[in-house]
């Protein structure tokens, strides 16, 4: 049997040395868990023209740009948890330097810390 999509995503992120990123609540939680904490994916909400940190079951330290360097955003997946799109991400964070498609997810990567631009 093939691993679940979140496990495939976690394995892909670990293999490529991605450490800190952002995603919708469910994708963030399950990816962090599936990676055995080798990747910290912090939950965000994409609403309108901005992204904000998730208020539910999240720690302030996950969003501190002095201690975390979130340089990727996971969009989509088999179960969408919010309405975030790649176009919205580009309008908030600028154009990504890479976009990868992994197990039904889009992983958008930037050269800067996305935490500094959270609303």
Explain what you see.
- The chain has three helices and six strands, in the order H-E-H-E-E-E-H-E-E.
- By secondary structure, it is α/β, with parallel strands linked by helices.
- Strand 1, helix 2 and strand 2 form a beta-alpha-beta unit.
- Helix 1 packs across helix 2.
- About 35% of the residues are buried.
Overall SS class: alpha/beta
Number of helices: 3
Tell me, briefly, the overall form: globular
Any low-confidence stretches, pLDDT <50, length ≥5?
none
Q: Radius of gyration, rounded?
A: 13 Å
> What's the pLDDT, averaged over the residues?
90
Q: Please indicate the percent range of residues in DSSP E strands (runs of 2 or more).
A: 25-35%
CA(first)-CA(last) distance: 41 Å
> H/E element string?
HEHEEEHEE
What is the topology, as strand order, of the major beta sheet? 3-2-1-4-6-5
Question: What brief labels describe this structure?
Answer:
26% strand; 6-stranded mixed beta sheet; 3 helices; globular; alpha/beta; 119 residues; 6 strands
Outline:
The protein is α/β, with parallel strands linked by helices and 119 residues long.
Question: How would the blueprint of this fold be written?
Answer:
Elements: H1 5-15, E1 20-23, H2 25-34, E2 40-47, E3 50-53, E4 72-76, H3 86-93, E5 98-102, E6 105-109
Helix pairs in contact: 1-2
